[in-house]
Every structure is written in structure tokens, then in C-alpha cells.
Amino acid sequence: MNRLLIGLTGNIATGKSVVRRMLVNHGALGLDADLIAHRTQYPGGKAYQAIINTFGSDILSPEKEISRAKLGEIVFADPDRLIVLEALVHPAVTADIEERIEQATLPIVVIERSSCSNHPWLGSASPSGSVRPPPNTNGTALARQTYA
């Protein structure tokens, strides 16, 4: 089946998810790459064991889940460690998205991601779009989402 892939990018709180949901409401398959990235880090996820092998079991919660707070302390303190984490997660995300595209029964797939860089499924998507909010509204949307 020929599919139209739409890559949707934009900064935080610009409305990417709103646009993705609007397209889904009109018959597209919507994929949230950031959510998929988080799921690859869940127990049994495609990047879970590699992350533990690389960063150690100290990043695990008592429930054996990867603590994003603990992992964040490591990778945001050292840019090289962030690159290592991305090298573990991005291939897993790419594989998951490629599987979902292959299995899709809908003719349009919308892939939401904060950035298109280093992601072949978005870099080749046509059309692609960037979401930008009206001036002076970006922080308001983020504050409502964060503190609601």
C-alpha cells in the first residue's frame, strides 16, 4: 500500500499533539515518537536491557523500572553520556515506528517528533511540517499542561 508519511515537528508546547490528533480524527494513523521512546525503556522494551547494561542497575527503581530522574541526572550532566543514551534508544524507536508503518492499514501516517534529525522515517517524510504557536502563547500552554 502506498502511504503518505507526514513528519510533524515543533518546539515544546507548540501544538504538535493537537495537530496530530486533528489528523487522526480525519483518518490518519498518529504516532508519537517521544512516547514510543519512553516505552522502549519500560521493562521488556527494546532499549531497556541495553540501557541497564550501559548505565548500571543504580538507575532502577525498586519496581525494576528505569528511573527517568536517575538516568536524567547522569545524561544531562555529561553530554557524551546523553549521546550514548540516544544511540541506544533511537534505533529502538526507529524499529518500532518502521514496524507500525509497515503494519498500518491507513493510507496516512503522521509521526510527531520534537526533532527530525537522525530519524530516517521523518527525514524522508513528505510532506513535513513544523508547528509554531501564535506569539506569546508558548509558555502559557506549557504551564497549563504542567500544572493542571
Structure notes:
- The chain has 148 residues and is of the alpha/beta class.
- The protein has one domain: P-loop containing nucleotide triphosphate hydrolases (Rossmann fold).
- The protein has seven helices and four strands.
- It has helices spanning 16-25, 33-40, 48-55, 68-75, 79-103, 120-123, 138-147; strands spanning 4-10, 29-32, 108-112, 128-131.
- A four-stranded parallel sheet has the order 2-3-1-4.
- α2 crosses α5.
- The relative contact order is 0.27.
- Residues 142-148 have low confidence and may be disordered.
**Helix fraction by DSSP (H/I, runs of at least 4):** 40-55%
The first-to-last residue Cα distance is 42 Å
How many E strands? Answer: 4
Which superfamily, in CATH terms, is the homologous superfamily? P-loop containing nucleotide triphosphate hydrolases
| Structural Rg | 17 Å
CATH architecture classification name? 3-Layer(aba) Sandwich
Biggest pleated sheet: 4 strands, parallel
Q: How many individual domains?
A: 1
CATH topology: Rossmann fold
Beta percentage is 5-15%
Tertiary shape: globular
Instruction: Write down the CATH class.
Output: Alpha Beta
Low-confidence stretches: 142-148
Mean pLDDT: 83
Element string (H = helix, E = strand): EHEHHHHEHEH
Question: Care to give the gist of this entry?
Answer:
By secondary structure, the protein is an alpha/beta fold. It has a single domain, classed as Rossmann fold (3-Layer(aba) Sandwich). It contains seven helices and four strands; from the N terminus they run βαβααααβαβα.
